[in-house]
Structures are given as C-alpha cells and as structure tokens.
Design goal:
The complex is a heterodimer. Chain A is mainly β. Chain A contains no helices and 8 strands. Chain B is an alpha/beta fold. Chain B has 13 helices and 11 strands. In chain B, strand 2, helix 2 and strand 3 form a beta-alpha-beta unit. Classes of the chains: A mainly beta, B alpha/beta.
Chain lengths: 131, 404
Amino acid sequence: MIDFNVYKPKKNEVYAYKCPECGTLDYPAPMICRKCGARRDPSGVYFSSWEKIPLKGKCKLLTWSRVYALPEGFLEKYLIFGIVEFENGLRASGRLLVDKPQIGMNLVAKVGLVREKVDEDVLGFMFDKED
Amino acid sequence: MRKVYIVGIGHTNFGNLSELDLDLVDIMAFASTEAMDDAGIRKNRKIVDQVIVANMGGGIINHQTGIASSLVSRLDLEPAMAELIENGPASGASAIKMGFACIASGMVDVVMVTGGELMRTVSGWEGTDFISTLLHPEAEYNYGLTLPAFGGMFTRLYMERYGLTDRELAMVAVKNHENATKNPYAHVITPCTLEAIFDNPDVDTVNPYIAEPVRLYSTCPVSDGAASVIMCAMDSPKMGYFKKKEPIVISGVGSATDTHCVHQREDPLRLKAVQLSAERAYKMAGLSAKDISFAELHDAFLVLELAISEEIGFFKIGASKEAVVKGVTRINGSLPINTSGGLKAKGHPVGATGVSQVYELVKQLRGEAEKGRQVKNPKHGMAVNFGGFGNNVVTTICSKECKK
C-alpha cells in the first residue's frame, strides 16, 4: 500500500531563488547568478540546487494600472495590476485586489489563481490591503 | 568598416489591410517593389545579394514560417541570400542593423530590408495576447499583463515623479496626429484637436481609458503594413546602378538590451537600453544629440516619446514636457519629433515599424516629405525603435552627408 500522506501537498507559493554561492536572491529564477555568476540547474542534477524561498508578506506599491486591454482568455471588464517591492528588496508584478490603489501604499502579497489554462491552474501574486 | 548608403525606399499605407485579398508576403512584396522602383533597379533586381525580412507575428498570427524565402521567390530575387529577423516591435530596426552589418563587414554589397506585419486578421483580444507573448512567461504574461498594462504603469510613475499632466500628454497626440494628416501612408489621417480628445466634458467617452492613465489617444492603433529599404556599399561598383536618387548614409547604428522583467530594473522609470543604444549610435556617427535635426521615436505609448527623448539626450530627464508645451517638437519647431505621425497616428505594424522609421528619415533627408511636414534643411535624422517594454532597443542615425 502506498501512503500518500508522505507527500507534501502542493503549496500556493511563488518562489524567489537563493544563490548557494553568494546568497543573492532573485525573482524570477535566473540561470546564472547576477552577482557572482554561479550556475543554476533547475533539476539539481549537474549543479547544486538553489534554495526556494517563498516570496510573500509585506510589500509596498510602486506603480499600478487599471487595464481594460486584456489578452485572450480574460473575460473581465478590467483587471488592476501593480509592481511592488518586498521588504527584502525584491520586486514583482502581479494582480491588485485593491480597487483604489495609491502609489506607496502598504500591501500584503498572497498567492491565488491568476489564469486558467486547459489542465492547468496558474498561481501567482495577488496584492491586497494589510489585514 | 565600409560606409553604407540607403539607395531606395518603399512603403505601403498603414491601416487595416485584413479585408484585402493579400497575404503577409504580398504586403511585404508591395513595399519591396516600391523600394526597387525608387532605387531604379527593378529590371536589374538580381543585383540584390541579401534580403532581410523583419516580422514579429508571422508564425503566430499568419501561421506562416520561412517568410524570407517566400518573399524572395515572390519578387523573383533568387538566388539572393535571405533571413528573417524577429526582435518583437524592434524587429525592423534590428533587420536594418543586420543588413548594415552584412555590408559593413564586406560580406555583400547590396541588401534589401523589408519589414511587414498583418495582424488585423485576428481579433483585438487575440492581437493583444500575441504581443503579450514577448513578456516574461511566468512572472508577467501568466497574470494577463499586456503591453498597455506596462504602458499604464510606466505613465503613472512618470506623471507622479515629473508632474506630467493628462493634458500635456494629449498635446503630444495632437502634434503627432497633425503630422499624420499630411502623411498619405498614415493609418489615422483624421485631424485630432485638444478640444476633441481632452478639453471636452465627454472625454471619458471620446477618449476612454485603455490602461489608466493611458487613454485611447495616448496609445497607437493596431496596424497592418510594410516598409522596405535598399542599401549598398559606398565603395561597391554596384553603386553605378543607383543613379536615380540621392544616397543617404547610415552614419550610426547601436542597440542595447535591458532586463526582461520591468520589475528587475533598479529604477523602473529609466530606459537604460534606450540611453545605451543611442550612445552607441552617436559614437559610431561621431555625433551628439545637439547635431540631430529631427527624430522618429517609438511612441507606442505617448509617454515613451517623452521618456525616449530624454534618454537620448534631447532634453533633461523629466523636462521634455516643457518642449512639448512650447512647440519645440512640432514640425516647425527647432527639434521636430515624429514627423511621420509616429506610431501614434501613422500606425504600428510591429515588424514594419523600425523600417518605416528609417524610411521617414530618408524621405526627410532627401527633402521629399509632403507639403507641410518637411523639416527645413535636415542634416541628421535619428530613429529609436523600442522592443519589449524597453528590453531591446535599436537606434539608427541617417545623414545627408558623410561625417567621417
């Protein structure tokens, strides 16, 4: 018998990657460290795998737009997008759940369903007001 | 390095060409044939050694590959060498750069560069998705982010930092549309006034938001069309075929890249690839910003005309809006920008745009621009073609006379 309880359930997380040589964090995952040039092998076969650090928590809004020109597959009238900066200095683009955003406002990054594809639910950042 | 002349230019009208019984390669062939006729070599067309095609969406939108080979055959240009260059919305200038390099290196003498796009055959929904495929697949595209989304976020940040107003942005639209009304190849020839698109109680209906604060009239239309240039080495005996028109020299070419994701830039409001591509082109030409007589700048979103004009040294960072208000960049100003109407009004068939910008430089430098939009005695024209959201930018400088 196989006990599936030994498997960890898939987590709703987005990751930054930490260079094992110099500790630099980057998002999205690079293939060469921007700081020291160490190589990353996504499979971890040839080079040591990089530590995945969940990118979440408090962040600050740098800029945003309410976008009506959406691509194929999105039926919403509009979506609001923004770029944020996390407390560790990393930045990311993502969906904004705040209806009246303001540059500089404090937000918290959650992870949710951002796109539905055939046989695949795409997870990504949802930035919301702090609770 | 050998000197490279532009000896022939061709252009189709820009607009919605999807209703015509023409395919992508037919449209490219029209522009190419115009360039051959302009150069006076249609009968001697086999002197073309190399064809370079610029196109972004043939594989996705038109379901066609091997486009360069197809164009050569449709023009009876075999056995010329032929390749396709894809660099997103900067494909056109990249193709010109590669054609320039083919000649400058001594590999060939005569190159024809043709850029074209036929993207109105699909819905706006699909077209927006197609252009978005140039974004980072995981960190940007998956979210439903689009180029207008980045245009909106960039515009908001620019307004916040430099105090640019919605009305000043509308003034750039009016200027570019004014130039386009005199350009028979432009997509939007209808006149546009400040009263119509901004000083109007119905502004949100007439000029609605596409991606706040970017409105309909602060972004370019989706266009089809093609443009072509023929180049020849100055020292080639084949220059003897090109007696019909005054040759224009490509005096500087430069390009540069920046991070794929906008969020990875130290300052998301600085366009380093623009600045560096211009610096490289200036260096090759032995020129600086003050030498440039007029420019075609990639105004896919109007704020980019302003930001690019600053990065290339025309104005101080954050100060270009004052030049707009004073009329410096209008056709009769001291530094006209987007004399063709720009992407805003001439249109933006992505693969054709960079070639079309250089077409405009040559037309102005020859003194052949239509009445009312000819720059007075221009010596050096500059084109900046912007790929991705600023992650791959190509600058081309064309001159009336050899500088070195």
